[in-house]
């Protein structure tokens, strides 16, 4: 079970990294000086506009964007199969005693209870994996919004200084 969780977290980590990398590439801007600005002036304007855009948005694309750590997964109930089998055996023994064969009733109850316990554990693991995936998507969406806001602010600043921004 631990290996399954590790694999799920590892896959989600790679998925998030790929999405973040794709977002950064999709946000490329093209800046053209329309007033004959020198290369030194362009560099100065770009730096000053970058600083202003970071102040306005709180997002700095020059710094590594690290996702917040995922919330810890809920602890899966341990021994769900065993507990389910035990409970099923007890219920089955009572039912079997009433019918005249407590041993047979206990065996049927144990098998049924074990299956139910295993299904509950699998359901919980699936819910945890879904929650981790949803968390990764929320992190990616937040970073994409930060990048978009930064690009808009940077573009507004540069256009105000005589550049065409696409």
What topology does this entry show?
Layout: H1 2-26, E1 31-33, H2 39-57, H3 80-99, H4 102-160, E2 163-165
Helix pairs in contact: 1-4, 2-4, 3-4
Describe this protein with a few key phrases.
166 residues, two-stranded antiparallel ribbon, 4 helices, mainly alpha
Q: Count of helical segments?
A: 4
Helical content band: over 70%
The neighbouring-strand order within the major sheet is 1-2
Overall 3D form: rod-shaped
Biggest sheet descriptor: 2 strands, antiparallel
Rg (C-alpha, Å): 29 Å
The pLDDT mean sits at 75
Classify the beta-strand content into a percent band.
under 5%
Q: Can you tell me the residue ranges where pLDDT is under 50 for at least 5 consecutive residues?
A: 8-26
Query: H/E order of the elements?
Result: HEHHHE
Tell me the number of strands: 2
Distance from N terminus to C terminus (CA atoms, Å) equals 49 Å
Briefly note the structural class of the backbone: mainly alpha
């Amino acid at each position: 079970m631990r290996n399954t969780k590790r694999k799920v977290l590892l896959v989600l980590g790679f998925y998030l990294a790929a999405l973040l990398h794709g977002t950064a590439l999709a946000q490329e801007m093209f800046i053209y000086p329309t007033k004959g600005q020198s290369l030194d002036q362009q560099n100065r304007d770009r730096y000053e506009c970058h600083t202003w855009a970071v102040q306005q948005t709180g997002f700095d694309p020059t710094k590594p964007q690290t996702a917040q750590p995922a919330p810890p997964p809920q602890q899966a109930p341990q021994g769900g199969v065993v507990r389910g089998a035990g409970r099923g055996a007890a219920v089955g023994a009572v039912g079997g005693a009433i019918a005249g064969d407590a041993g047979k009733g206990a065996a049927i109850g144990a098998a049924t209870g074990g299956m139910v316990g295993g299904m509950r554990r699998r359901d919980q693991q699936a819910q945890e994996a879904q929650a981790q995936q949803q968390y990764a998507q929320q992190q990616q969406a937040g970073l994409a919004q930060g990048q978009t806001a930064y690009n808009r602010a940077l573009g507004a600043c540069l256009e105000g200084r005589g550049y065409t921004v696409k």
